[in-house]
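Holo model, DI6. Inputs:
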Amino acid sequence: MNRDGLLIRKVHLATLDEAGGWGELRDAALLVQAGRIAWLGPEAQLPDGLPVTDEVDGQGGWLTPGLIDCHTHLVWAGSRSAEFEQRLQGASYEEIARAGGGIVSTVRATRAADEAALLAASRPRLEALKREGVTTLEIKSGYGLDTETELRLLRVARRLGEESGVRVRTSFLAAHALPPEFRGRADDYIDLVVDEMLPAACREGLADAVDAFCEGIGFSPAQTRRVFEAARARGLPVKLHADQRSDLGGAALAAEFGALSADHIEYSSEASIAAMARAGTTAVLLPGAFYCLRETTLPPVDALRRHGVPIALSTDCNPGTSPCTSLLLMLHMGCTLFRLTPAEALAGVTRHAARALGLQDECGRLRSGLAADLALWAVDHPRDLACRFGFNPCVASWAGGRRLTGPAT
Ligand code: DI6
Ligand code: FE
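Output:
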């Protein structure tokens, strides 16, 4: 298929190119040239003489920006379904973690898996997301917790991007949990992270951002600060798993470092949210983890709205707290559990998810000049994407103008 001159006709557009709305444009068309959106507008105003080499009839469907899953731990080996059973019988996530399960059990399985095994385990997860119109995907390391395995995870993430055509952004998350060999020596482990692991990841160009898990069962704010300082010294943007189970001031710390995003933030204070607003830090809400852990403390959505903090939504795809490969389901849960509006939810997986990855000038909206990352849906209105669940109306998708899913033209 020619990447140049692709005209998509007979569609309605939800451009997400305005704050707080769908950006509806009915009876529209969109032209892709050299992988970017070259023109969009009412089909009746289609200019003459466009260099069309390929045409798609959208049959009255809706064209949106390709979906962006901006927080995943997609690459791992093994399964934690036995822990799911334990939790159903009353064990808490923290108890399981402290008894050597949780993240560390995935670390054991992941360390034992070579690159081919990790690719094979992770590919179906990526494919499931891709079938639902995901065109950009963030993937974190964090199940290696030693230099060799952390780098392997990031290499696999890069490979998945290359082979699938999905735009993959990596986050270096070695400060995810304390590896068992460092028990009682968390500061020594942080030394290793900043002195050896991060430099090694940077040497291979494997990290697009740096993340940490700032939590009682993770790392303290002081340890997180050291990781952030190392990231800053290398010019890498930061993100943070912040205030998921308790308020350690993680979101404020993230804001202090101008973080791209603070994620989870169920327990963040209003002062932290004000700091996020000042810093331009995006909130990433993760309804899958909230649901799976049967949390009851809701993220402070009203405060985020009041302070004008952009809200993104993501799967948090991981084997423990959100074994989920449906971003569309997160749209639904963002509305039912967190009371987002359907338009906020769609912005959360497009416009604002792009911001959470620092990609707001590249994708996440339909606008001339941005990458042609597109998803075509057989729905009456884009709010159907949030209303329905267990339903995938994605007809076709493109990343950088290249067809990812859907019938060949
Ligand atoms: N917070 C999460 O939701 C995931 N990691 C994190 O820091 C959970 C990861 C896991 O349980 O494997
Ligand atoms: Fe996470």
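Residues 73, 102-103, 106, 176, 213, 241, 244, 289, 316, 318-321 surround DI6 (ligand 1) (CB under 6 Å). Residues 147-164 form the longest helix (18 residues).
Archived with the compound record.
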